[in-house]
User: What shape does this take?
Amino acid sequence: MSKCLTILLPTYNEVNALPSVVDALPLDELKTAGWDTRIVVVDGRSEDGTQELVTELELELIVQGPASGKGFGMREAFARFLSHGDDVLVMLDADGTYAPKDMLRLLKHLEQGKYDVVTGSRLRGNIQPGAMSRVNWIGNHILTWCAVALYRVFISDVCTGYWVFKRSAIQKMSLNSTAFEIEAEMFTSCASEGLKMSEVPISYAPRIGESKLGSIGDGVRILRKLLVRKMFPRPVNRI
Assistant: This one.
């Protein structure tokens, strides 16, 4: 029997990066491995033609509501995923930094290791020159150390944008993030719910186009989310 997979690509003004990301998706290998794949783009109301490009590529498009921010978009996409019958969701940023072929190893690890969630670790993998500034490298290590110290669950890269979830894991997550702290909150929710997590080293390349992540401000926001969710494991609004 085939297994149903959703590949989720978050976008915001990624018209230059999206074509190469979609072209690199290992669809033939996934089919050989028994996956029936659906590609979904959740767009944060791009203004550069990204939505028109998604239509041209004949991909499924979710345009997030009036509220801006990656967290809003991801929560909307997760809710849409649960309305379908797919078994697994792969999420990776569509800015060219993550290698689509790495999802084959993440999926294999998910199936063989009997985990609920598998992440792709940039900090244990191959970070290509120019892909991550020294400030961001240090900040990622500090935030990851804080996450592990607070939740006593190991992860080597809490801010990674490469995740694989079983359907049951998304059903259990409680999220209320609005912006780039969403990945950290996904970790806190998985840890609080006792989900089995693992990780696979991945490659990380320089992004295509302008970065939308601010070093210090977003880092403070992520740290605040780690602390708040430790005190309040379940936010009021859930998926």
The beta strands are 3-11, 35-43, 60-63, 88-92, 117-127, 162-166, 197-204.
